[in-house]
Input
Amino acid sequence: MLYDYLIVGSGFFGSVFAYEVGKLGKSCLVIEKRDHVGGNVFTENLNGINVHKYGAHIFHTNDKEVWDYLNQFAEFNRYTNSPVAIYKDELYNLPFNMNTFYKMWGCKTPEEAKKIIEKQRNNENVQNPKNLEEQAINLVGRDIYAKLVKGYTEKQWGKKCSELPSFIIKRLPVRFTYDNNYFNDKYQGIPIGGYTQIIEKLLKNVKVKLNTNFFTDREKWENIANKIVYTGMIDKYYGYCYGKLEYRSLKFESEIKNIENFQGNAVINYTENKIPYTRIIEHKHFENTKTNKTIITKEYPIKYKENEEPYYPINDDKNSKIYKKYEKLAKNEENIIFGGRLAKYKYYDMWETIKEALKTAKNEIN
Ligand code: FDA
Output
């Protein structure tokens, strides 16, 4: 065996793990099937703008340990996520707050807004929501549902809200203050200079092989290290023996615009069903970059097929049952660690991925 660990995947999970065990003298080899490190947090500098290649990545957490940890590797700015939604020719602030309610109904006080939402909920009289539509109306009333939830959610999941399970929307944050800050977390920001520099620092002393897929030479990789840290798809690892796990995918369409400022905000959601993309990202606003041109990316949700990137796990009953079977196999492995969003078939925010990697590395060392 040449290495202590073979790490499959150079996203946040694999990179934090490699850094942590590397500090204690363990040797790691990272293999990555893409032509760059970083997984989905990869940012690429184009025309002086740091472009979030796999969708907008805004760091936010309440966990001071993770926040301090990441701040070792980059300075963060004080970016606050305040997305805007466009429905037909109307523009609304998100998350749903007094600015949204004022625009929707002209009401100025929390009392007035609460009364309108309550009245709309009572009109519908939904007792036990059976689907996402009923659940959303029960939470925010008909108007907000129709203009700001319905079209966006149907595009996101490729199904009618009346056919989607209610569990997808457990909560819809409603705020009765004039506060457009999307996240409630204590710490929030974007690393100045992008995320890739963080990954590069984490992997500075680690051997990395890009354009290398674990499955093209599986036998070789299985015999190169004492242990494997696997951050790819768990169903693929087990040859889909219990069936394929379902995902939702995304298509990104980027363009350079010959203007300084295209939309005045980093994130604008398009909540109308007729427009095929869910949002437009204007990357320069993440870091307040001063350039003559700008780069925008339209985000289209699409059906997941093999060879597409698996972005969002569909954690419904059917897939959860399949995942549980794979999880059981994984738990019985002695020399393989499964970590990160694809191996755990779970949507993790960045801070959760980092937290999990730190915990896993600590367990290995103790
Ligand atoms: P990640 O997918 O990043 O890394 C896995 C790596 O393994 C990939 O590089 C892949 O190529 C490689 N790999 C897989 N199979 C392989 C194989 N067979 N051989 C070799 N390599 C292989 N979070 C947040 O906090 N704020 C945000 O704003 C967002 N925004 C956001 C937008 C979108 C569109 C998505 C999909 C996700 C987010 N996230 C987020 C979540 C964030 O992207 C996530 O927490 C981390 O990227 C997860 O890191 P991992 O290392 O688990 O996976």
Remarks:
- The chain has a mean pLDDT of 96.
